[in-house]
Amino acid sequence: MDLLTFARGPALQWSVAIFFLGVLWRLFGVFLLRRKKDYSKPRSTHLWRGAVKGLIVHLWPYKEFRPKVVQSYILGYIFHIGLAIVVFFFVPHILFIKNIIGVGWGGLPNSFIYITGAVTIAALVAMLVKRIANPVTRLLSNFDDYFSWFVTIAPVVTGLMAAAHWGGRYEHVLAVHILSFELLLVWFPFSKLMHTFFFVVSRGTTGALYERKGTSA
Amino acid sequence: MNDIDTEHPLDLESKRVSVKKPEKRYDMQGEMPDDKRVQTAMRNFVRDFGYIAATYMESCIHCGACAHACHFHEASGDPRHTPIWKLEPFKQAYKREAGPLAFFYKALNLKHKVTVEELQEWQELIYDTCTMCGRCTLICPMSIDIATLVGMARHGMFQAGLVPHELWAVAERAEREGSPLGATPKVFEDRIEWMGDEHDVEMHVDEDKADVLVTMSSIEIQKYPESMAAMAKVLNHMGLSWTFRTDGYEATNFGMLSGNSAWQKDMSMKMINAAIACGAKLLILPECGHAYGALRWSGANMYGKPLPFEVKHISEFLAEGLQSGQIKVNKVDRSVTYHDPCQVSRRGGATEAPRVVLGALGADLREMKGAGLMNWCCGGGGGVLTIHRADDLRHKMFRIKMEQIEATGAEDVLTACSNCRQNFDDNQEYHHWDKTAHSLLDLVADNLAE
Amino acid sequence: MAKDDDKEQTLGEVLRQQGVSRRGFLKFCATTASLMALPPSMVPAIAKALDKALRPSVIYLSFQECTGCAESLTRSHSPTLESLMFNAISLDYQETLQAAAGTAAEAALHDAMKKFHGKYLLLVDGSIPVKDDGVYSTIAGKTNLQIMKEAAEGAAAVVAVGTCSSFGGIPKANPNPTGAVSVGDLMKSGQIATKPLINVSGCPPIPVVITGVLAHYLTFGEVPALDVHGRPKVFFGETIHDRCYRRPFYDQGKFAKTFDDEGARSGWCLYELGCKGPTTYNACATTKWNGGVSFPVESGHGCLGCSEPDFWDKGSFYAPLSTGHWGTAEGIAAAAAAGAAIGIGAAAMSRRHQDTISKEE
């Protein structure tokens, strides 16, 4: 079996299985922990409204904090949106998804995808430099932070390499690209990448709490 | 530490009421081997991990944004003062003992076991450098409620005997005497009588039946007793049936601040039982920040069911009285700014009430930048004010507040928290400032329209 | 068929006998040079070398194959340079083409092997079955493996013609009942002598590629530069996709969605219809087929990837290249269910842990 066949076959099946196993494990493991009933008299009972509000309000920093954090937010958005575009609007990726879920959609021109990929890489590198340069984030960072960064940037880099036919024979680079994505899938459930799911819960929880207390958020 | 009065004498003369600065610090309580201390801390950390705490633990992406929202970090520039870093041992307990992947973390030792030295280092981070003001939650892209988590982490620290000397001393005194600062029922009663005479106001103490139970903070009883007179004046003005009760008057809750849940419950239950005993429909909490969080938002949970009476902060009560016309006031022709006590505004939700009061008084309100939700903490809350070790940073940090206030150009500073007032007084002395914070209640009481 | 005679002729002599003009010969040399990406200045050198080269003896063995490769080489409707080239060599044994049969044919093979021992070029098409002692394909009572072993012994070099002899091809496709292997595999496993080997893969290979390889061998007397799969780099150096005239549509994101939609009619990229061009190394897009008339992609069908190892087992010809190969969804469902169960278990354990602590404290 050649590397590409391995990457597209058994490696893909295993990594997707591990991804689902891990994600559900972690979500169930958290959601089913004890919930204490709050007997205090609520100011508002529209907790769902608060949760949604919390979700939306934290999309962008409050005015007071902008000078300090807006740069990080912009970089963060660039690479998150960049990843989304590259993942969901590159035609081969759409075909990959369509093959699994049966639904496809229109893609964007490759040249646009390549530029987006390059910008995404630049933003990710800038984020890493910031993380290391800033004493606060340097202190907070652990292996998870750095490795998650690596598994995030690796598929973008290998993807661009494959597209540019650089770094080896196309089918090998393509295989490495697929394998790097599979590494991301396997690492995902056991790492900070789970914030993809938890950010909704976390923001929603605080939003509901604030609504309950009547804190004007 | 049996004789707490001689070992930890109170210092009621300084601008900030606490125990006297200890010559030798006892920042570790009880005798137990290091192993046991660590184990106790970890086990008690683990007890607190419900769904909400776990969600927050899982969500952090180590972005470090919270550092910028924290006055301690902004004043010190020390990365260790980053809010989420203050929870590191707590987080490790979660990962090793309670999270869904705990098995991995423990079996593979991915998160090393915390040492007693680390916990000692974190004592400073969990107690000295966090007022649980909750400002970091607002900057957090995941909106993690770090303040609540710090409150939880203090439970484990207390059980492990790792509370800062002064905070432990006042909490212990509160549990034993009913007040952290020596405002025993006897002292309380004497001071009510004194204020009644001094201000010629009718006082109600230990009434069997009353619609309103009024509580006080020991800071007010000991340092700002005029608040008691002011409270009486307003309630008499409204013609309400009210009372102070010597079996339930102390609104501060050092059980909560130090991290002893059993003591927290004891302290809350005194007020709850007193209110039930006199059939009160309303319990008024005094000008005290954490008292509001302790009873308004945690009281029912200590009680185990919904409280059979309303709980209101004095600012909420005044606002409603002024809006309904039950309280009539003369206009105040001053420019003022209002300092939001974190636990009442940001974390309590009673942000609008003081604005309503100042509006009714006709004062020229000049808000600070980010007033209300975003307000900078004065730096005295969460028990920090009692800790001598924390003084330097607290004084340094207060500059943020001073600059904010100076920028408004207001003549007077008002607040509705006696602990904030203490901190303002202390910093006024330290910085030789011409301003300090005054009581919102006093302002209303002084301007009642007869 | 040119039968052997004792007088060894040079290639030039043979071609002239066949009526090939000097002009035609030079044209052939020029074509060969350009195919092999050699500079035009090399053309006289090639011509000189080929002209003087001895008419080589070639033995062409066929094993598990479909004769498609031989068809590809011979079924040209007009006399082509490839066919001339084939006429020029001394094809001493080719089952399909030779007149002799039975023992006479076998004798011819043995004569050639003996006479030109160490000098003949061995062309092989078809894979060699090795399972059960190779009983699945025999000729004159000998297994393919035995024949291959004997023939390889005296070969100067071996050219594997077609994907079957290069990589195992269709006989090797799952579940490979005969245990088919390629010539290269036999050399690697030491079952036959290791000789210089050139894989000219393709199902079938492009005729001009075969003659190009032969011309190169005759001209330079050595094996050309090969890629990782042992194929001449000059012909297999780039993918179909890289050289495809439809490539601009790929870059623009214009894809035919079905074989008869507007995109298909407009000649858009066939990636979505399963074209394997991006991972297929061959010269189809440049040399084309049938005398440069067309090639599969040009005629509207995606590349099957026939010149690549195991092309038959790489999923549907009509599944886009980027799609994964899924066994069944059950595995994923089972993993998800297991994950949920472990999560529930973890939460329950955590709760019990808390209860125990609460009780003990």
Q: What this model shows, in words?
A:
Chain A has helices at residues 3-8, 10-31, 47-57, 66-89, 91-101, 110-133, 135-140, 143-164, 170-187, 195-213. In chain A, helix 6 runs antiparallel to helix 8 (143-164). Chain A has 217 residues and is mostly helical. With 450 residues, chain B is α/β, with parallel strands linked by helices. Chain B has 23 helices and ten strands. In chain B, helix 19 (314-324) packs across helix 20. The mean pLDDT of chain B is 93. Chain C is α/β, with parallel strands linked by helices and 361 residues long. Chain C contains 16 helices and nine strands. In chain C, strands 2-1-3-7-9 form a five-stranded parallel β-sheet, sandwiched between helices. A two-stranded antiparallel sheet of chain C has the order 4-8. In chain C, helix 3 (43-52) packs across helix 10 (207-220) and helix 5 packs across helix 10 (207-220). The longest helix of chain C is centred in the last third of the chain and has 31 residues, at 330-360. The interface between B and C is medium-sized, with 13 and 11 residues.
Structural class, from secondary structure content of chain B?
A: alpha/beta
Report mean pLDDT of chain C, rounded to a whole number: 87
Beta content of chain B comes to 5-15%
**Subunit organisation of the chains:** heterotrimer
Strands side by side in the biggest sheet of chain C: 2-1-3-7-9
- What's the main sheet of chain C like? 5 strands, parallel
Largest interface: A-B, 57 and 64 residues
Number of strands of chain B: 10
Count of alpha/pi helices of chain B: 23
Unreliable stretches covering 5 or more consecutive residues of chain C = none
Distance between the termini of chain B: 52 Å
| Overall form of chain B | globular
Radius of gyration of chain C: 26 Å
Helix content of chain C: 40-55%
Structural class computed from helices and strand pairing of chain C: alpha/beta
The proportion of strand residues of chain C reads 5-15%
What's the count of strands of chain C? 9
